[in-house]
Specification:
heterodimer, A: mainly beta, globular, B: mainly beta, seven-stranded mixed sheet, four-stranded antiparallel sheet
């Protein structure tokens, strides 16, 4: 099972600031997914990155996939209180025709108004 | 399209009891996966069912079991509950040919 390390573990910032969170592995990712989980809810998929060097934008969120496909980052511009939540990276293990996600432990983000 | 639903949302049990949690996937989804989420370990894969068959199982003791019905609804059972079983149990469903999983809101289990 692939191990995913996320950093930082906790992040507390003021509204309007920028931030970056990271997801790393010693192994190559087949693909990488980013989720956001709000309190009392299940994770919601934000984006999937597949190709090394890929950059995807979702409004104020920018996702990058490392060239070697061993790392990924999520950058949020001008954070808002609505961005508060747990950000999780995950990689699928589709071996043997089974869908199983391995998750990092997440970055807990608090955006203070 | 309705999302993944889980019942109950909250549950309090005592050590030694057993519990059954239910999950209804998105209509048309035949794959259902279960995850345990704790503050210390994060999200960990329990098992996955597809067309009533368990396809994959995570590293959990045999006290954790599940099943899937012909309508794709799934249940998971935990017997002889321990304090460490306190967690948020999440169910996710997937459509055919995709890695995208859609999660339910979870069942918060507290073992006293």
């Amino acid at each position: 099972t692939q191990l995913l390390e996320q950093s930082p573990q906790f992040l507390s910032i003021q509204e309007g600031e920028n931030l970056t969170v990271y997801c790393n592995s010693s192994s190559v990712f087949s693909s990488l997914q980013w989720y956001r989980q709000e309190p009392g809810e299940g994770p919601v998929l934000l984006v999937t990155v597949v190709t090394g060097g890929e950059v995807k934008k979702l409004k104020r969120l920018t996702f990058q996939f490392g060239d070697a496909r061993k790392d990924s980052s999520l950058h949020i511009t001008a954070a808002q209180p609505g961005d508060t939540g747990l950000y999780l990276c995950a990689t699928p293990d589709s071996g043997a025709g089974s869908y199983q996600l391995t998750f990092g432990k997440g970055t807990k983000l608090s955006v203070i108004p | 399209k309705a999302g993944v639903t889980q019942t109950p949302r909250y549950l309090i049990k005592t050590r030694g009891q057993q519990v059954t949690l239910s999950c209804s996937p998105i209509s048309g989804h035949r794959s259902v996966s279960w995850y345990q989420q704790t503050p210390g370990q994060g999200l960990q894969f329990l098992f996955e069912y597809f067309s009533e068959t368990q396809r994959n199982k995570g590293n959990f003791p045999g006290r954790f079991s599940g099943r899937q019905f012909s309508n794709s609804r799934s249940e998971m059972n935990v017997s002889t509950l321990e304090l460490g079983d306190s967690a948020l149990y999440l169910c996710a469903s997937s459509g055919y040919g995709t890695d995208t999983q859609y999660f339910g809101p979870g069942t918060r289990l507290t073992v006293l």
